[in-house]
Amino acid sequence: MAQEFLSLHDRVAVVTGASRGIGRAIALELARRGARVVVNYRRSADAAQQVVQAIRAAGGQAEAFQADVSDYDQAQALIQFARQTWGRVDILVNNAGITRDKLFMQMKPADWDEVIRTNLYSTIHCSKAAIRPMLRQRYGRIINITSVAGIIGNAGQVNYSASKAGQIGFTKALAREVASRNITVNAVAPGYIETDIWAGVPEEAKAQILAMIPVGRKGAPEDVAYTVAFLASEQAAYITGQVIAVDGGMT
Ligand code: NAP
Fold this sequence. Notes:
Elements (H helix, E strand, L loop, with lengths): L11 E4 L5 H12 L3 E6 L3 H13 L4 E5 L5 H15 L4 E4 L14 H29 L2 E6 L3 H4 L5 H21 L4 E8 L12 H8 L10 H11 L11 E4 L5
Parallel strand pairs: 1-2, 1-4, 2-3, 4-5, 5-6, 6-7
Helix pairs in contact: 1-2, 1-8, 3-4, 4-6
Bound molecules: NADP nicotinamide-adenine-dinucleotide phosphate.
């Protein structure tokens, strides 16, 4: 399939957690470059439909699909839906993620379970479902949305930081396994990006993080989406097993 520079024309993409925030921006950007996109969500059906409508209004193709990707069977169903709808899956963006912040001393087993399942198991489950068709078609792009917390750690986020560091190890090992089949596996590590995920964070903590950013401002979801779209393209074929920080220089 010959591709124009940075075009994703005819590609089929699955973006987990694409109803809001960074996932939404990624879905819109991949579609803008010509990919057909499955917009996955867990609860926000209306928001996911709005993403689908925005893509269609711009002349693109998209479908919404509800699945809790922390669950193995639902992750399988999501990838299956993409294959049934458009016959293949070329690009998988493992973006769905949550936080349950508190000090380690106060963390309960449920705080660990939920975060590790949602952030790390979802990446493993969706990749597992997508890898066989990618191997068969000798083409694939898996992009895992990790975090700077997985690189440098963050106080109050030991569960989240562990899940994000787990995604990085997964990325590097899987990249080695599938590289010879024209499948790349990379991670993108956002810093402080303005989305709902920051809703419960105290202003003082946000100001402290802002002070750590050399560029001197928060990032926008689109900043992450442009990097993901590049890694999803034909032109990024020689980049695999990498972690690209999109963090205004924070790390
Ligand atoms: P967000 O605005 O809170 O959006 C989270 C998205 O994930 C929503 O679409 C949500 O779906 C979906 N989701 C959550 N659990 C899910 C599940 N079990 N199954 C399917 N979908 C699920 O978060 P965000 O800031 O865009 O974060 C996106 C990713 O970037 C996360 O992995 C996060 O860790 C990472 N990240 C964000 C930042 C930042 O500063 N924002 C920094 C570093 C890394 P519903 O709407 O249906 O709930």
